[in-house]
Amino acid sequence: MSREGAGLFAAFRVLGRFSGHVPHVLRYHGRHREFYLAAAVGRSVHTYNVSTRRPGNTLPQDITCLAADRMLIFASYDNILHAFARNKEVVHTYEGHKARIHLLQPFGDHVISVDVDNVLIVWNIQSEEEYLQIDFDKATFAVSALLHPSTYLNKILLGSEQGTLQLWNIRSNKLLYSFPGWGLAVTTLEQAPAVDVVAVGLVSGHIIVHNIKFDETLMKFQQDWGPITAISFRTADGHPVMAAGSPVGHIALWDLEEKKLMCQMQDAHSTAIAGMTFVPGEPLLITNGADNALRVWIFDGPGGTGRVLRSRMGHSAPPTKIRYHGLNGEQILSAGQDGTLQSFSTVHEKFNKSLGRGSINKKKSKKKGLKLDTMALPPITAFASEVAHQSDWDGIVACHQGYITCTTWNYQKTSMGAHKLRPEEFSKHKPIDIYATAVDITSCGNFAVIGMSTGQVDVYNMQSGIHRGRYGKER
C-alpha cells in the first residue's frame, strides 16, 4: 500500500504524535491577541493555542525545518520551501536549492533559507522570486546558525562550524564585519532582550553573551551536558533569566544579574531539547523534543525552577500493541517500546492519559530518575483490559518482554497497579528461560489469565493478586 493510502483504507487522523526533532516556532496573532505554537509532526504542521490543536496541510515528505513570521508559517522538506497561511493552506512555494534546507529565517518581506551545500538564498515572499544568492566556502565558513539581530535593518548574523561569525547587509550584498569567534563551532544564535546583544551557543557547551556592536563579550557560561541545542530569554516580571537546552534533555537556567547558574531542570525531555521558547511577558517556557513531547513549564514557585503546566506527549518509541479500552470506542490503550502504557482519546487529545512506565520498585525509580533507572521493566508485549470493576481495583494486566512477572495497572489512577503476578514456585528466584507470553481478563473483571512460555496457564484474582489455579502441564 502506498503512503498516501488506498481507496479502501484512507488516513483519517493521527493519534499520539505531537513533536519531532524539528524545533517549534512561536508566533503572535495580532487580531486574535494570542500566541500560537507551530510544531512539525512528520509531513504536517500542527498549530496550537492555549487549549486546541489545528492540524495543517500535509507535505509530500517529512518536514526538516520550520519558521514563522506575523502572517505565515514556513516549512521545508528536502530542497523545497513552502509557506502556509491560516495554519493550513500552502500559499507559496520556493524552489531553487539543490540540497536539503537546514536553516530558515523570515526577514520582513523576505525569507532566508540556507542548505547543507552552504548556499544562502533570499526570497521575496509574495512573488516567490529569488532576490539574492550567496555561496559560502564550506572549508572556511560552513553556515550553522542564522539570526536577524533586533533593530538591525537589512542585516543578518551568521554563525559557522569554524567558530567565526559574519554580519551581512542583505540589501547591498556586503559583508559588514567578521567576528573571530571562540574557535569552536556555533550551534545556535539567539537575540537577547537588550539591543545589540546576542547569545551564542557553542558545541563545547559554552554560552557567550556578546555585544555585536562593539564586538565585546559581556558574559560567559558553561554547562557540562554537551553542545547547546537551544537558548531562550525570559522577559516576564523583570527576571533576567536565560535558559539553555542540551542533547541529554536537561535545561539550565542562568541568572544574568548574578551571572551564575540559578537552577537545573533535569530530564525535561528524554531526548535532546529541540526547541525552547519563553512566551513574551509570561513566566512560561515551551519546549519540544524528539521524544514526541511538547511541554509548557510555569515558573511560579521558589528557587526559580519550573513545573509542567500542561503537556502533549505520546510514545517516544514505536508501539508494540494497541487495543480499545471499554465499549464506546473513545479510548485506545497503547503499549510502546519506550516501556510506557498510554491511553489516546479518539474524541479529543485533552482526554489522553499516560499510565507511566513499568517498574520493579516505583519509589526507587522516582529517586534515581529516568536516565539512571535500573528498576524499569522491559517493554509491554501484551495486555488486556476490562472496565467492569475498574473503579474498585486494577482493570489492566500486562506481560513484559522476556519477563516472568506480569503487572497490573489502574486506569482510573493512571498508574501502575498494586500487584505483580508470578507463579509461586518462582517467588524467590527468577527462572532463565520461562516468561509470560499472553494475558487476558475475564469479562467480569475478577480474574487475570496468564499464559507462560512453558505452556501452562495461571489464573489470579485481580482484587487480591492471589494465585487461584493452573491449567496445562509443563512441556
Automatic annotation (TrEMBL):
GO terms for biological process: rRNA processing. GO terms for cellular component: Pwp2p-containing subcomplex of 90S preribosome; small-subunit processome. SMART domains: WD40 (SM00320). The keyword NADP does not apply. PANTHER family: WD REPEAT-CONTAINING PROTEIN 36. It comes from the Eukaryota. WD repeats lie at residues 266-297. It comes from Picathartes gymnocephalus. Keywords: WD repeat. It holds the Pfam family Beta-prop_WDR36-Utp21_2nd. Residues 39-300 form the WDR36/Utp21 N-terminal domain. This is WDR36 protein.
